Amino acid sequence: MERSDRRLNIALGIGLAGFALVPWYRIESGFYGLGWLGNFPFGTVEAPGIVQIASHGRWTLAIIALLFALGLAARAFKVSPLRANLLVGAGAAGIVFLVLQGLAVGFTGWTWAISENLFGPLADGQPSMGAGAGLVALSFVLMFSFGLAERGVLRGDAFVVASIALLIFLVSIFVFYPVGSMLIGSVQSFDGSFDPSGFIRNIQDPSIWSLDCVVGGNRCGIAWRTLFLAILAASGSTLLGLCFALVATRTRFPFKKGLRLLTILPIITPPFVIGLALILLFGRAGVVTQQLSSLFGLEPGRWLYGLTGIWIAQVLSFTPISFLVLIGVVEGVSPSMEEASQTLRADRWRTFWRISLPLMKPGLANAFLIGFIESMADFGNPLVLGGSHGVLSTEIFFAVVGSQNDPSRAAVLAIILLFFTLSAFLAQRVWLAGKSFATVTGKGDSGAHIALPRSLSIGVHAIVIPWILFTLVIYGMILFGGFVRTWGLDNTLTLEHYQRAFSFSFSNGAIAWTGVAWNSFWTTIKIALISAPLTAAVGLLTAYLIVRQRFVGRNVFEFALMMSFAIPGTVIGISYIMAFNLPPLEMTGTALILIACFVFRNMPVGVRGGVAAMSQLDKSLDEASLTLRATSFRTIRKVILPLLRPAIVAALVYSFVRAITSISAVIFLVSAEYNMATSYIVGLVENGEYGVAVAYSSMLIVVMIVIITCFQLLVGERKLRRENRVATAFVPSAVSQEKAAS
């Protein structure tokens, strides 16, 4: 009872602070700047909720105050069904009404005609919600959660119930609300009224759905061109990834460590840099183009600028990711099954085709899905190499920031893009549903994998070795391109691009960052350092709930959280712009919208990594802690987290790197004050400053290599220590468990 009262006091204290101590509405100059203190607590915007009701006529906030007072009244009761029902009712009603009030009242008054008809016109509207509204919303969620816990939901575990409620609340705000706003925006006019004419006009646009390329014409519609490119890119990257995985696991290739090194490169490379390197090689002024022109007298062509160039760049970018997905699957195929096949006189080719390859289907499906979604969402390479052959991601961008200025067209294109990716996501789940591909069981499974059929071995080597050399040349161009004065015209070696981007000087005993890239560089690092731990925390908490808890709707909960993986970054970007540019939540141009985008865009990777790591931990460890009356929160902090340090580090590093190299969503969300590195590099490319762009990209690659190297060293050391303790794992004891937890 004392513990229930203490946590309820915390929830109510958060709500009281939101109502009485901080501004209810958004502070334009920035909440953390504290400039609002001069007009607090009676300013029109700076006033807290209680003053807004009393002095500024915001009578709609009075209902929220009454619902919060109902929660306060519940505190007077002892823990009982009555108190639990009061908390659940007050919390749920408070959340619903707070959402409705925020959506119904805009800058100038009612945003819904039905509200004005029922209550009459408002004398004044309201700004966007601020810190006060956010704290009260959090208080309502906690009241609702603690009420459910007191009713015995999930064995009365308040931490678990509150975690699930908060995750659902946050995902609803930062995933489903933006996507819903985009869908609604596609059938609205500029004044917000219902107007489906723009949607109908754009959805019927021949430039989207034209099939001229099928019937003999020269151009496909944007939708079919993007779909065709995504299928080709996913197929190419999956096939090459499988070849790399087979070479790394089933052959005597002498440079297997080098293959694994190549898997790091696409993660640490800005997504458009490969396209830029291809231009340096095969563009009209590229090295290869100029050499062929001088040797054979060929006229430099523009074959690279179009779907061919985009496909090459995307396969280069996504093949190592497919390799990462597939290598574990290839290694996981049971050697005993292959040996059994050969015992039944099947040759190596038949064994591979009928036994090994079918068991790799989940990995192949995942690799294809990742390649498909990444190709659909890719923005940088089509922007650099697309020329007149635009794809959905670039057309969405130009519909927003170009001369068209057609938000309805951007929304329609984003809906088409989302339809393609979600269809692939659902098709993969349906295809794999109900099928078993298990090859690792509790029984012993010794033996070695059979060698590849000779013809297949020759084939995969013939594919992999030239591709490795080609990849090395590409990355050599990326590094070398920053050291020449003007690529293709003046190849004199110089450091002026690095000096222009990253120069600094000493003035009055302090460092002055005079390079043009420093501002975006430091902004990127700061936002990445903030978003990475949040992403890891949300992902690992979600993994804990999925693996360790059993509750109604768990599968739906997992699918809803993982669905954000299937939403392309371009769609996330345009939906955030349409959702968070107006009340109730106005965040465009701030660091908060970038952080929210990174957290909920990259969260599914942390979830899957956490699920994989936590599934290897015996459930008896945390059950023992709970038996000794430790709370779930203390169990996670003292038992689970120390055993998940490698997974935590992996989630942190991945989130940090993705925050630095992301472009498809970021390009819509940056501002003059908060400009990210990738967006700044795109601007350099558009201005023809290739040298500075390559220099900046090379610097980012070096920074990422340092971080990834530290990560690999840390994880490698922990894996080695775990192997040294393997003998004690067979005889569990209090001592061995205590050592593992420490």
TrEMBL record:
Domain named ABC transmembrane type-1: residues: 223-428, 521-711
Record localization: Cell membrane
Gene3D superfamilies linked: MetI-like (1.10.3720.10)
Gene Ontology CC terms, in alphabetical order: plasma membrane
Source superkingdom: Bacteria
Keywords, ordered alphabetically: Membrane, Transmembrane, Transmembrane helix, Transport
Transmembrane segments: 7-27, 59-77, 84-107, 127-146, 158-179, 227-249, 261-283, 303-330, 351-373, 379-398, 410-431, 458-480, 501-521, 527-547, 559-579, 591-611, 647-670, 690-715
UniProt-listed Pfam families: BPD_transp_1
Stated family: Belongs to the binding-protein-dependent transport system permease family.
Protein name (Swiss-Prot/TrEMBL): Iron(III) transport system permease protein
Upper classification of the organism: Bacteria, Pseudomonadati, Pseudomonadota, Alphaproteobacteria, Hyphomicrobiales
